[in-house]
Write a structure and sequence with these properties.
It comes from Catenulispora subtropica. Helix content is 50%, strand content 6%. By secondary structure, it is α/β, with parallel strands linked by helices. It has a seven-stranded parallel beta sheet with strand order 1-3-2-4-5-7-6, sandwiched between helices. Helix 10 (343-349) links the parallel strand 2 and strand 3 (354-359).
Length: 594
């Protein structure tokens, strides 16, 4: 017998070979064969693969964002606006894709067709996107030349696409997170109420959470709170080269009722940079007076500005402002800033025989003030104007100073809010000079709306230019129309056709503005086109770059107030040669303080 121990040994069993980890190459090949991903759980929302229709529309909106607008855009801004408009396009495309799938439920693309679409469409769109970015760079260079910036601008095409994709992806995650929250709420309400009511309740609660969280937490307590804190600290500082004035004719001096510490940063700069009698004498060759500058800092706890205006009147009494030839009420911007190019030329023209008065209503940046302090701007100007106007009526006409109104941007908006109609503005003073009025300016909007039929929106002619005239190049534009006598009192608006501060409005989302239709402004490229949603965001980005443009472009007006004041209220014997000398003097002053 054979023993069991003598049986032939069985071959050892083979060990199972572990799956080799996929290499980068194999993963790329696998993705190329099937360039999309279906989540293992159909309820997934945030990590779901993008919708192809939405992707196509997002790319198309990105292309539209590359078209030129009012001003040349830096490449980083173009990347951001590309992502923002792309997510808007994705929303439109996804909605259309969903409606299409519901309507064509019987016909849905099979796996092969879906694969081929994802293999070909993104490649085609990427190639076209590169070509459109190159075209956009050329259009931006042409616009730079048109507005005096030269061609030296490099658009980083690849970085623009990457920034746009990053912005788009971030916004897509946020939107899908909101959608996931809505689905969770609908499902929770569906356990206790019928489904139609559950959908209504879920969507309503989700909207309340998003709106309340965005406004109260992110906006008011977050962003606005941070800006408020920073701006408040800035308002307590003093700009370099600015020192307390010695002249008793200005606020903040030792003789003033308003201490230097109460003026705020912009107020301190305003009173400390007033021209001296010697500087005025050097310009005119005649004896000069120290110009009066009254400035009241912000009183945040006061809504009616009663105390601020009362303090301004007492300061005017102290300085003898009622005995000067001209009283200039100038509106401040959000931070309390007064552009030196507006009051200073008037002081030079009148040899210092002028008083400029301003009341600060906010310390926030202008665009933030426009959103949250619009009413305070109007209230401050109304209180100041009515108080000064009423006091002037008590002075005999023969000794009464001329009253003029002036302001730039929010400064013009605040004084515009004093009046209800263009005729009230004309009759309300002895002259008006405004620069870059915002779209929300009530009287300005009436003038533009009721302009003469043959005039464009960017250079309106109102009642044949009898009292009101607009200019981008004031030495030329204010002469027209030649067939009409320019009567007093005069109102001058300096308004650049490429100034987004003038043209920005939420209506741009879906309504084509008049300035985007031919004939276009002289510094607007013929390639400009209006596109819903896209043009709104383009103009919004233009706001951010409008303050650094050359003079007569964007929101930069330079020494245009010299021509403006020479047209509105010139002193006796004033000549065009005097205006030219004044412009050179103001240019030198600006260089000294730049």
């Amino acid at each position: 017998m054979t023993r069991a121990t003598d049986a032939p040994a069985e071959p050892p069993a083979e060990r199972p070979v572990a799956d080799r980890p996929a290499t980068l190459t194999t993963r790329v090949v696998a993705f190329a064969r099937r360039p999309y991903w279906d989540p293992p759980n159909p309820k997934w929302v945030v990590r779901r693969w993008p919708d192809l229709t939405g992707y196509c529309f997002a790319t198309f909106f990105f292309w539209l964002s590359l078209t030129p607008s009012l001003l040349p855009r830096p490449w980083i801004m173009q990347g951001l606006i590309g992502g923002i408009t792309g997510i808007a396009g994705y929303g439109v495309g996804s909605l259309l894709g969903t409606l299409g799938r519901v309507g064509l439920r019987r016909w849905l693309p099979n796996e092969r067709l879906r694969t081929r679409a994802w293999q070909s469409v993104p490649v085609v769109l990427l190639v076209v996107s590169v070509a459109v970015v190159v075209w956009g760079a050329r259009a931006q260079r042409r616009l730079r030349v048109l507005q005096g910036l030269g061609e030296s601008s490099s658009w980083h095409g690849a970085i623009i696409i990457l920034i746009s994709l990053g912005t788009f992806s971030l916004l897509l995650v946020v939107c899908r997170s909101v959608r996931l929250l809505a689905r969770k709420l609908v499902a929770w309400f569906g356990r206790i109420v019928p489904w139609p009511m559950a959908y209504a309740l879920g969507l309503t609660v989700c909207a309340l959470i998003v709106v309340s969280g965005t406004k109260n937490v992110l906006w008011d307590r977050g962003f606005i709170g941070f800006i408020d804190h920073v701006s408040r600290q800035t308002n307590e500082g003093t700009e370099p080269g600015v020192h307390p004035p010695a002249s008793p004719a200005v606020s903040g001096s030792p003789a003033s009722l308003i201490p230097w510490s109460a003026l705020g940063t912009k107020g301190r700069t305003f009173v400390a940079t007033a021209p001296t009698p010697q500087e005025l004498r050097d310009f005119s060759g005649h004896p000069a007076l120290p110009p009066i500058r009254v400035y009241v800092g912000e009183h945040p706890e006061e809504s009616g500005f009663t105390r601020a205006v009362d303090l301004a009147l007492r300061e005017m009494d102290r300085t003898g402002a009622w005995n000067r030839k001209v009283i200039n009420l100038v509106g401040t911007t959000g931070s309390g800033w007064v552009d030196r190019n507006i009051p200073t030329p008037l002081e030079y023209m009148y040899g210092g025989d002028a008083a400029t008065v301003a009341v600060q209503y906010s310390y926030l940046p202008s665009w933030i003030s426009f959103l949250v302090d619009q009413e305070r701007a109007g209230h401050a100007a109304q209180a100041l104007y009515h108080a000064v106007h009423d006091r002037l009526q008590t002075i005999p006409a023969g000794r009464r100073p001329k009253l003029v109104l002036s302001g730039e941007s929010l400064g013009s908006f605040s004084l515009d809010a004093v009046f209800n109609t263009p005729q009230e503005l004309i009759d309300g003073s002895d002259g008006v000079f405004f620069e870059g009025p915002p779209q929300a300016s009530r009287v300005w909007k009436q003038i533009v709306t009721h302009r003469d039929p043959d005039s464009p929106e960017w250079r309106p002619v109102y009642q044949r230019g009898r009292n009101v005239r607009f200019a981008q190049w004031p030495d030329i534009d204010l002469r027209y129309p030649l067939t009409t006598t320019w009567e007093h009192p005069r109102v001058v608006y300096l308004q650049n056709a490429s100034d987004p501060v003038v043209w920005w409005t939420p209506d741009l989302l879906f309504n084509k503005p008049g300035w985007a239709s031919p004939p276009l402004g002289p510094d607007i490229t013929p390639q400009l086109r209006y596109y819903p949603i896209v043009s709104f965001w383009q103009t919004t980005v233009d706001l951010a770059v409008s303050f650094g443009m050359p003079v007569t472009h964007g929101h930069t007006y330079g020494t245009g107030a010299c021509e403006g004041w020479a047209a509105v209220l010139p002193p006796a014997g004033w000549s065009p040669a005097d205006t030219e000398r004044l412009e050179n003097t103001m240019a030198a002053i600006n260089r000294r303080w730049s």
